[in-house]
Design goal:
Layout (H helix, E strand, L loop, with lengths): L6 E4 L12 H12 L5 E4 L11 H14 L5 E5 L5 H14 L3 E5 L8 H13 L5 E5 L1 H4 L5 H7 L5 E6 L12 E4 L5 H6 L4 E4 L2 H13 L4 H7 L1 H7 L6 H9 L16 H13 L9
Parallel strand pairs: 1-2, 1-8, 2-3, 3-4, 4-5, 5-6, 6-7, 7-8
Helix pairs in contact: 1-2, 2-3, 3-4, 8-9, 10-12, 11-12
């Protein structure tokens, strides 16, 4: 298993009423997650709304996470973007700030060629002495990295793993630690000997996801029981429903930055129903 941990929660970024990063809420949430199943945290990734954070905010969150991390927990910095120079800059700075590893998403929008992807990741890997995880999520980037390309990129020194969010191509990759990029494939990833998952549902059912690691004989049963949670948190663009759930559970994480908007009444009702069904809301049945 990877030294980064098995359950890495892709943390949301809390905002205050004025839309500023809420550092106190971030620290409180990180400590809560550490006590409820998480081995480490991905900071300023997709779920953290990195696309609408300034460089100062993004690097500030990474520095805050490193400084305030609970004992024994790892910090993976989201430093990927579609401009190689900017990805290198963010990677260099996150390394200086003390992150344990980098998560680098496939360049989006500009749709680089296979050779372009290789050159991009060579530059990113050379910018740090920390391990780098690739992030394959073609639904958001319009570019897929197939298993043979992932294996080729795994030969680059410093690239040690992949967050695989293409469920159709989820499989072990020689030379890379495999992390589930979707909660719904976490159990399958563990079953095939993967390193774990970079998870969203662990914000609310982290202890149950931990049981999937610790009780492999019950993994399928537990996974089946959490399917409604996975679905509810992705009723619309993430992290909309995850923030709604956390606010319902008493975590002051605020709203979202445009172009993302808060959950509709219908989406909120669906999230509340799932939380109640799992006994997560105060006074809800177990």
């Amino acid at each position: 298993m990877s030294g980064l941990g098995t359950i890495l929660t892709a943390m949301i970024t809390p905002f205050d009423e004025a839309g500023r990063v809420n550092e106190d809420a971030f620290i409180a949430l990180m400590r809560h997650l550490a006590d409820n199943g998480s081995d480490g945290f991905v900071v300023a990734g997709t779920t953290g709304e990195a696309s609408t954070l300034t460089d100062e905010e993004q690097l500030g969150l990474i520095a805050l996470a490193v400084a305030e991390r609970p004992a024994g927990k790892t910090i993976v910095a989201g430093t990927g973007t579609n401009d190689t120079r900017q990805a290198v800059h963010l990677t260099e700075r996150a390394t200086e700030l003390g992150a344990d590893a980098m998560l680098s998403v496939t360049p989006y929008y500009n749709k680089p060629s296979r050779l372009g992807l290789k050159r991009h990741y060579e530059a990113v890997a050379q910018a740090t002495d920390k391990p780098t995880l690739l992030y394959n999520i073609p639904a958001r980037t319009a570019t897929n990295m197939p298993p043979d390309l992932l294996a080729e990129l795994g030969q680059i020194e410093g690239i040690v793993g992949v967050k695989q969010a293409n469920a159709e191509e989820l499989q072990p990759i020689d030379g890379l630690d495999l992390y589930a990029g979707d909660d719904a494939t976490f159990a399958r990833t563990l079953d095939m000997g993967g390193a774990g998952g970079i998870c969203v549902a662990s914000h609310v059912v982290g202890n149950e996801m931990r049981r999937m690691v610790d009780e492999p004989e019950r993994r399928g049963e537990i996974d089946a029981s959490l399917r409604d949670v996975y679905a509810a948190l992705f009723l619309t663009s993430s992290p909309t429903c995850t923030k709604a759930a956390l606010n319902m559970l008493g975590h002051d994480v605020g709203g979202l930055r445009l172009p993302l908007v808060e959950a509709t009444p219908e989406e909120s009702a669906a999230v509340r129903s799932v939380l109640e069904r799992h006994g997560l809301l105060t006074g809800a049945p177990a």
